[in-house]
Backbone:
């Protein structure tokens, strides 16, 4: 009998739910029974409530078992060898609605391939995009990105094509591609998942960018909280070099491009691109004033294309399938797909890649299945710690950059944190300030000191001390932070705070009458 | 290994100082007092500059940590999933507050702001072991395993 092939994620979420223990137990059980077992560690499918989700191929379909534990090893082997029934069988994985209904342009291979295998990547469409780009000149590549409508997925939503053109047009002896893999926003894990599950997509996207703008060196600035991603990335980069996909002569094109992974040191502000560049230079991660734009004077003062992981991972598909194909997904000026991350108090948490235009309600209530506590959803925070808390009456808003901005919110990095009715929004407003105290780089007074005042002011409000006066103080403080902060850390901390006050006044002891007068 | 032999290989590398500090901490568990002077010498910086870098980043520790470090996520998605109560129960269980190290130097409790495990919240990390849908029982189990591993 040939070896039994089993797929099990190496993804952090799967490991956190016991995947490594399951792997050990399966190997031990197989050895005991003298079964030849080939265990392939893959990325995660993103259905995290089913993790660890084990898969085995049957009649060309991947059949899933999840969530499995180490105690299931014997029964699982029985089920997979014979036709034994196993109550953790979830059927053909790709027919589960959560997965089936997605549009996976970025995550197409994640959970299927061995993340560090070049042959796996190539046999699943990998490098088709780079091959096309290598036949184009710099201007045409940048124009293709422009035409795709791709906007930065790190939070600001700036058109990628404009940035590519700026860096391409800058004269310099050295240019850089820098990947922002600092992914500090709570509720987000798309960067982590793709780096762990299909790192070649990032490597290919970076290479296309390097060829386009004339950069020969790329850096991935990775947060230190992601050790598994670091391991997988380094292994994939080494394999890409061996296969001639990185190095002095990328794919025989005569063009050079290489990548290094750099480990951050635990500072949320280093996700801000200029802080990140300082950190990558080995310095304190203080924010730099703009201009100059990093596109013109970035790393070591050289033109630098800084992009979020998902922005660059969107690039291979744009070239493989064409800008027009890509642009057809989404709505208005929000083109293509976004990997939404559904987290917090939610029944079916995980990653859901789909075109822009999906509603919050669909994501949270249908796809996410509501709260795991079974209690009503009270609010969703969108786009990380600097994002707004929205009430259910706004859940029919479509997820697109402009719609969100109109309602004082933002798509951010696509993270949704779901809360049930046990949450008190005054606590969350206080936390927003606390987080700013903890993570401010210290350069601007409104951010550094204002956040401390913010914590005190919320405390006074919740204690009922001079409530009206302190609500005014809170408002003034928020305005001061918006006006006097160099970056969005101080400038956007007011968003979670003010949305909490606006939509959940009762948590601040504001009576309906006062609300009407607002 | 001497401090300078840990630091030297990173001189001239991009962001070398931070990588060197990571390496010293990986080996020693914290940054011994001489790190500042050694790194300043190796990278041709002032001690104040090195100190400024060390103090900027949460990862760098100037004092020894407990033998095992338990990091509990204090960020929003974990709060939404009962993280605040979870943190309280861990603090009570071990008689330590966040940021404290036990008198025996066995254990340090520390907050972390998101581990990217927000869909399996609340999340924690026991040394390098990830824990999803964490509760005190899972933390104790992970601690036992960490102990077993360091013994073997
Ligand atoms: C406080 C703060 C934190 C940020 N954190 C991140 C982050 O973790 N990841 C990220 O990609 N962008 C982050 N950004 C946005 C970056 O500054 C920058 O806009 C982004 O890396 C550009 O890439 P994009 O065009 O691909 O989005 C942050 C910005 C601010 C102000
Ligand atoms: S707003 Fe805050 S984090 Fe941003 S530069 Fe100013 S002090 Fe630093
Ligand atoms: S918020 Fe706790 S793991 Fe992300």
Residues:
């Amino acid at each position: 009998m040939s070896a039994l092939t089993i797929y099990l994620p190496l993804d952090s979420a799967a490991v956190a739910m016991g995947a490594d223990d399951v792997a050990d137990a399966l190997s031990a059980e197989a050895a005991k029974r003298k079964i030849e077992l080939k265990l392939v560690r893959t990325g995660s499918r993103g259905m995290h409530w089913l993790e660890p989700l084990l898969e085995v191929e049957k009649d060309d379909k991947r059949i899933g078992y999840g969530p499995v534990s180490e105690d299931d090893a014997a029964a699982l082997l029985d089920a997979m060898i014979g036709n034994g029934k196993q109550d953790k069988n979830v059927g053909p994985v790709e027919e589960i609605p959560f997965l089936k209904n997605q549009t996976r342009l970025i995550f197409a291979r994640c959970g299927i391939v061995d993340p560090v295998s070049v042959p796996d990547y190539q046999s699943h469409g990998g490098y088709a995009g780079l091959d096309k780009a290598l036949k184009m000149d710099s201007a045409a590549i940048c124009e293709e990105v422009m035409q795709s409508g791709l906007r930065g997925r790190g939070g600001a939503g700036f058109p990628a094509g404009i940035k590519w053109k700026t860096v391409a047009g800058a004269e310099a002896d050295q240019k850089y591609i820098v990947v922002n893999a600092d992914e500090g926003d709570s509720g987000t894990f798309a960067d982590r998942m793709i780096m762990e599950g299909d790192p070649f997509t990032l490597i290919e996207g970076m290479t296309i960018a390097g060829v386009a703008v004339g950069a020969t060196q790329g850096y991935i600035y990775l947060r230190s909280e992601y050790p598994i991603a670091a391991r997988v990335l380094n292994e994939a980069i080494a394999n890409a070099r061996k296969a001639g996909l990185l190095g002095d002569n990328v794919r025989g094109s005569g063009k050079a491009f290489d990548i290094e992974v750099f480990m951050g040191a635990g500072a949320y502000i280093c996700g801000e691109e200029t802080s990140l560049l300082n950190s990558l230079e080995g310095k304190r991660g203080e924010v730099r004033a703009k201009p100059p734009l990093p596109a013109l004077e970035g790393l070591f003062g050289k033109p630098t294309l800084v992009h979020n992981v998902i922005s660059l991972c969107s690039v291979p598909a744009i070239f493989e399938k064409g800008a027009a194909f890509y642009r057809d997904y989404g709505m208005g000026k929000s083109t293509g797909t976004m990997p939404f991350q559904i987290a917090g108090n939610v029944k079916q948490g995980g990653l859901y890649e789909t075109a822009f235009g999906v509603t919050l309600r669909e994501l949270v209530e249908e796809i996410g299945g509501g709260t795991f506590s079974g209690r009503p959803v009270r609010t969703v925070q969108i786009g990380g710690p600097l994002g707004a808390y929205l009430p259910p009456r706004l859940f029919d808003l479509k997820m697109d950059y402009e719609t969100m901005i109109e309602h004082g919110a933002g798509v951010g990095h696509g993270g949704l944190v779901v809360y049930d009715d046990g949450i008190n929004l005054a606590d969350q407003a206080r936390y927003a300030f606390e987080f700013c105290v903890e993570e401010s780089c210290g350069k601007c007074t409104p951010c550094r000191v204002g956040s401390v005042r913010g914590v005190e002011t919320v405390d006074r409000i919740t204690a009922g001390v001079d409530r009206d006066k302190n609500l005014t103080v809170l408002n003034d403080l928020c305005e001061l932070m918006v006006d006097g902060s160099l970056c969005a850390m101080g400038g956007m901390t007011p968003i979670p705070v003010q949305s909490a006050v606006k939509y959940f006044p009762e948590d601040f002891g504001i009576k309906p009458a006062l609300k009407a007068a607002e | 290994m001497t401090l300078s032999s840990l630091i030297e290989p990173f001189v001239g590398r991009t962001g070398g100082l931070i990588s060197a500090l990571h390496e010293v901490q990986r080996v020693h568990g914290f940054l011994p007092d001489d790190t500042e002077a050694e790194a300043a010498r190796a990278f041709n910086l002032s001690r104040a500059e090195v100190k400024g870098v060390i103090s900027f980043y949460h990862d760098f520790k100037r004092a020894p940590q407990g033998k095992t470090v338990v990091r509990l996520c204090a960020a929003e998605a974990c709060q939404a999933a009962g993280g605040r109560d979870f943190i309280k129960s861990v603090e009570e269980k071990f008689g330590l507050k966040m940021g404290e190290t036990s008198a025996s130097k066995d254990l340090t409790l520390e907050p972390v702001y998101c581990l990217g495990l927000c869909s399996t919240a609340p999340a924690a990390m026991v040394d390098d072991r990830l824990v999803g849908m964490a509760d005190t029982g899972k933390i104790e189990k992970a601690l036992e395993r960490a102990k077993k591993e360091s013994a073997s």
